[in-house]
Amino acid sequence: MCILLCACASEHQIGDLDSNSDEQSDIDIRPESWWQDAPGVDERCGDGEVDPGEECDDGNRMNGDGCDWLCRSGDGETPDPTPDPDVPPITTVGPPVPVVSGDEVVANNNAMDLECSGEQYSLMYFHIGDDYEQLMSFRRFSLTGEELINEYEVMTDDSNWSITVDHTWTGSEYGVFYGNRNLGGIVFVRIGETGKRLSDPRLIVEHPDARHHNVAWTGSSYGLSWLEMPLPAPLDCDWTPMPARFSMFSPLGDDILAESTEVHWRATSWPRIDFCSDGAFRMSLSALVDTECHHPMHEHTLLMDGTLLESTSIGEGFSADVACGDDGYAILFDHGRQDGESTGREGLYLARFVDAGVLLEAPYRIQLARASYAGVRIEHDELGYVVLWGGSSASMEIGLHIARLDRAGRLVNEIYVWDGGSDPVGIRQYDLASVGDDEYAVAWSIGETIYWQVFR
Most buried among 186, 232, 240, 364, using CB within 10 Å? Predict the structure, then answer.
């Protein structure tokens, strides 16, 4: 998805950095020695165990709960919310435009994906055919929104889709990953810039419960995160295993570069990944950890061979997304209890990392909002971040929202994109893409119509 892959990141080196240190070493983490030599790998703040040097450890890195983000007793300092005055607000370039209508669009989470190649936007979505079969279409648009002619438009396979799709631009073609229940797993197909199919569909993850995948392109291979989720899906507090996994594949999809790695045995959110310029993947994921229905939100760092370097618990919630940048990476997450119990600290938070699991500051609340199950989206650019979420806002408006944050994660402004109407969770399907130069496109569906709008 473009929310993970289209923002450019310059090279930066991740080193052996202690969470209480202000200095960064010049040790590159790509050799395995980082994992062996890094301080506090087994005894780190946020693991729920009070280790030497910690006054407390409540299993997260949040302020305001009696144990601060550095595992010191107290609520921690309240950061200055003032945004950088030199960062301009995000604005609309034009009005919302309906780009797909009347195709009986499948309004389901992850059933639509928006991508950018730098020269065009592309949209893949599921819809219902004349014989009530589930089909998948490819549409492409110019950077100004005009629809372009496709050479190939519809995946005509009428099998029982899992209604999840993700596609990414590699620089010369699109890699498309979609679920197929009849074939029993996740299918991969290559298509050209104009939509022409370049390969036959290939079953790339053979598992009947493989769903909710997300892909990141490294420049030479695909990294794929996915859930092993049985149907019916386990309830939030059910201990039925639902592993989050990670795999690596060659550009042609004909070679498994890294076998499936189990990142966590009981995930409670869809794993989202991005590939950073230090040669490692970052994943955001919440997981069930106790019988009291706590769902800590974790940051994971994985090498290209699937090795899990570290995992950091940063908060609690369900929806999250991750974006790499030129100075580290950030996770946007919806913090709050899934059982509905209020802590008084609910909202959208941004956690910024300078190193593998090393926070710059406590996760910062940018909104009193709660996101819908369709999740949150984040892109990184030279000004900071652009974030998208469906659900409520500080003014309790239910719908779709986009916001500009500065490089420190402070809220510059927010735009109310679309009214969610009477739906209590707001718009259920949306995506964000960047073409660069601080320009973004948003696509969302209402009923059988997919809308499009450009922001700058």
Answer: 186
d(CA 56, CA 45) in angstroms, rounded, equals: 9
Q: What is the pLDDT of residue 160?
A: 56
For residue 168 the two structure tokens come to: 């990414």
Outline where DSSP puts E strands in 71-221: 97-101, 112-116, 121-128, 134-141, 147-148, 154-155, 161-169, 174-180, 185-191, 202-206, 210-217
**Cβ-contact 314, 46 below 8 angstroms:** yes
Question: Residue 45 is encoded by which pair of tokens?
Answer: 């703040």
CB 386 within 8 A of CB 434: yes
| 379-393 burial: b if 16+ Cβ within 10 Å, else e | bbbebbbbbbbbbbb
What percent of the chain lies above the pLDDT cut of 90?
42
**Computed over its alpha carbons, how large is the radius of gyration of the chain?**
21
How does strand 210-217 pair with strand 222-228?
Answer: antiparallel
- pLDDT tens-digit series, residues 373-404: 568 999 999 999 999 988 765 555 678 899 99
pTM check: above 0.85? yes
